[in-house]
Design brief:
The complex is a heterodimer of chains A (116) and B (112). Chain A has 116 residues and is mainly beta. Chain A is 0% helix and 52% strand. In chain A, strands 2, 4, 5, 6, 9, 10 and 11 form a 7-stranded mixed sheet that branches. In chain A, strands 1-3-8-7 form a 4-stranded antiparallel sheet, with no helix packed on it. The N and C termini of chain A lie far apart (37 Å). By secondary structure, chain B is mainly β. Helix content of chain B is 0%, strand content 61%. Chain B has strands at 2-7, 10-14, 19-27, 32-38, 44-50, 56-58, 64-68, 73-78, 87-96, 99-102, 106-111. In chain B, the strands form 2 sheets. In chain B, strands 2, 4, 5, 9, 10 and 11 form a 6-stranded mixed sheet that branches. The radius of gyration of chain B is 13 Å and the shape is globular. The chains are: A mainly beta (116), B mainly beta (112). At the A-B interface, strand 4, strand 5, strand 9 and strand 10 of A face strand 4, strand 5, strand 9 and strand 10 of B.
């Protein structure tokens, strides 16, 4: 079974631009979560989607948004990019989102975003 | 609120020596705890998870961790380090699989 895939793997943008990152979960997984990883702040939760609905959101400004499609694929968008948005963006999928807190999150390789 | 503290941002061990990576958690309710490993330019790979079934949890690659409620700890150990264990290790706590709260990570170096 294929793992979580993220595209593109690397991206360079300039301040003020917007960017869209894509995540395809493991087949059959319905929950997709996004995380930002930076040297200064570490790994921080962005948001989680299940059945095309955002169910959970971290403490990030409204410039960060996302969506999930009917096939569970997810995209996240960052508008008006700032230098501080440079980070590794990780997507994770899990089989079921809801009652079971033991569901494991499986991570993709990430998208490395550099903002110049 | 929940949080995770990983003691030691860098740990060095000799090949064949014991690996001990420390993790303490804070949670208002019984937590679910995870250890992930991250190799350079890769995502996170699950090593093991604690879900209250057993306090000693065995994971992949010879790693294990023991949940100690009285000490609010979930330290990761491996009896004998291998060069391939060099990576960054993250402890995480979750009240829901949908949102993980990570520690700041421990970079493990294995010396020949």
């Amino acid at each position: 079974k294929a793992g979580v895939t993220q595209t593109p793997r690397y991206l360079i943008k300039t301040r003020g631009q917007q960017v869209t990152l894509s995540c395809s979960p493991i087949s059959g997984h319905r929950s997709v979560s996004w995380y930002q990883q930076t040297p200064g702040q570490g790994l921080q939760f962005l948001f989680e989607y299940f059945s095309e609905t955002q169910r959970n959101k971290g403490n990030f400004p409204g410039r960060f948004s996302g969506r999930q499609f009917s096939n569970s694929r997810s995209e996240m968008n960052v508008s008006t990019l700032e230098l501080g948005d440079s980070a590794l963006y990780l997507c994770a999928s899990s089989l079921v989102s809801g009652l079971s807190s033991t569901d494991t999150q499986y991570f993709g390789p990430g998208t490395r975003l550099t903002v110049l | 609120a929940q949080s995770v503290t990983q003691l030691g941002s860098h740990v060095s061990v000799s090949e064949g020596a014991l690996v001990l990576l420390r993790c303490n958690y804070s949670s208002s309710v019984p937590p679910y705890l995870f250890w992930y490993v991250q190799y350079p330019n890769q995502g996170l790979q699950l090593l093991l998870k604690y879900t209250s079934a057993a306090t000693l949890v065995k994971g992949i690659n010879g790693f294990e961790a023991e949940f100690k409620k009285s000490e609010t700890s979930f330290h990761l150990t491996k009896p004998s380090a291998h060069m391939s264990d060099a990576a960054e290790y993250f402890c995480a706590v979750s009240l829901s699989a949908r949102q993980l709260t990570f520690g700041s990570g421990t970079q493990l170096t294995v010396l020949p």
